[in-house]
Specification:
Layout: H1 9-22, E1 27-28, E2 30-32, H2 37-40, E3 45-47, H3 49-58, E4 63-65, H4 70-79, E5 85-87, H5 103-117, E6 121-126, H6 131-139, E7 143-145, H7 150-159, E8 163-167, H8 170-179, E9 187-190, E10 196-197, E11 205-208, H9 213-216, H10 220-229, E12 234-237, H11 243-248, E13 251-252, H12 255-263, E14 270-274, H13 277-286, E15 291-294, H14 308-324, H15 336-354
Parallel strand pairs: 1-4, 2-3, 4-5, 6-7, 6-8, 8-11, 9-11, 12-13, 12-14, 14-15
Antiparallel strand pairs: 9-10
Helix pairs in contact: 1-14, 3-4, 6-15
Bound molecules: iron/sulfur cluster.
Iron/sulfur cluster binds near residues 69, 95, 128, 276 and 300.
Length: about 350
């Protein structure tokens, strides 16, 4: 066994590259944009959660070593092909927002709002959730969405006469509602203790009260401070930010949209970005001719749990598995009672988005 603790960053990188090369085509490394740059640089696929879901479903490698948080690795395991294995370098890399709802609370809330409203309601869950909720949505004719397609997905159901039960992120929910022209009178908020505010009879969207602490942290004061410091600055924020921050910014959009807007802009645009700090830092590094500053420094410590050391350990285990038949570690498996319905929900998302 290698002693990864004692290796330098460069030695770890070389080791990872060596194993990747040794098993070329058999190992794929997808990484989320919020991962550290040294991980992103070693990845075969880089993207936001929508891009990763679509691209991972196409991977043919026997091993997918997923550099992201657990719900992403789990999503990849749901879509994995026959015999394909998903390895998560640090199984403790979770997501506090995904923990804010589970199957039982979703079921209770759904039954309650069906009863109170008398409406047809489709459950739509943000990708940032665990497999039990995705399966619940698949089972009840709903789907999954990401920040890049939430508007299209919600509109799809509204156009068919459904209201939408949206979870877990209340900020993405309300920002999507506003994009679709949905008013306060058409929104019901559901707290985790199932207390309801708003009128179920007129509701088009029922919003769970989860949030991402990384994005909830940004304030309108941050926006004012940055505008005062950099006159003419263009502010782009992620829709997991509060409605007030999204309204105060110039643009809001998914991680991929932020990446595209900033990368493709003229050099003289000054960008203020309201999303995860590792990603903002990488955009700044990749665009040295542009001034790119964070709305404030806000890190996702769970994403940062994936590092060169645990990635190298995962690859070493795969190496030993191939060469000596050793057992695997940190393999992401999905309870068979959830897999089929979660798959239905994820495929439904892809079908609506690609239609
Ligand atoms: S950035 Fe927020 S939503 Fe994304 S993984 Fe981190 S805590 Fe979860």
């Amino acid at each position: 066994m290698n002693n990864f603790e004692k290796m330098t960053e460069q030695e770890l990188i070389e080791y990872i590259k060596k194993i990747k090369q040794k098993y070329a085509g058999k190992i794929a490394i997808p990484a989320h944009h919020y991962e550290n740059s040294n991980i992103v640089e070693l990845a075969d696929v880089i993207g936001d959660s929508y891009k990763l879901a679509v691209e991972c479903a196409k991977l043919e490698a026997e091993f997918v070593v997923f550099c992201g948080v657990r719900f992403m690795a789990e999503g990849s395991a749901v879509l994995a092909g026959e015999g394909q294995k998903v390895i998560h370098p640090d199984v403790t890399a979770g997501c506090p927002m995904a923990d804010m709802i589970d199957e039982d609370s979703a079921r209770e809330a759904y039954e309650l709002i069906l009863k109170l409203s008398g409406k047809k309601i489709a459950p739509v869950v943000y990708m940032n959730s665990y497999v039990d909720i995705k399966a619940f949505c698949g089972e009840h004719g709903g789907t999954v969405c990401t920040s890049s397609n939430a508007k299209k997905i919600v509109k799809y159901y509204l156009d068919q006469g459904f209201s939408v039960f949206f979870s877990p992120d209340n900020n993405l929910g309300i920002n999507t509602a506003r994009e679709l022209g949905i008013t306060d009178n058409e929104v019901v908020r559901i707290k985790r203790d199932l207390t309801i505010s708003g009128n179920p009879a007129t509701a088009k969207m029922f919003l769970w009260d989860g949030f991402c602490h990384v994005h909830q942290r940004f304030t309108t004061e941050d926006v004012e401070n940055l505008r005062a410091k950099y006159p003419g600055i263009k502010l782009i924020v992620h829709p997991e930010c509060t409605e007030e921050v999204v309204n105060a910014a110039d643009i809001s959009g998914s991680t991929q949209k932020i990446f595209n807007e900033v990368t493709n802009s003229a050099d003289d645009v000054i960008w203020g970005i309201g999303t995860e700090m590792n990603f903002v830092q990488r955009l700044a590094d990749d665009n040295p001719n542009k001034i790119i500053v964070p709305l404030r420094e806000s890190y996702c410590f769970n994403m940062a749990k994936i590092n060169l050391k645990n990635l190298a350990e995962s690859l070493e285990i795969i190496d030993k598995h191939y060469s000596e038949g050793a057992g695997l570690k940190n393999e992401v498996t999905v309870d068979s009672k959830y897999k089929q319905n979660a798959k239905i929900a994820l495929h439904k998302m892809i079908e609506i988005v690609e239609s």
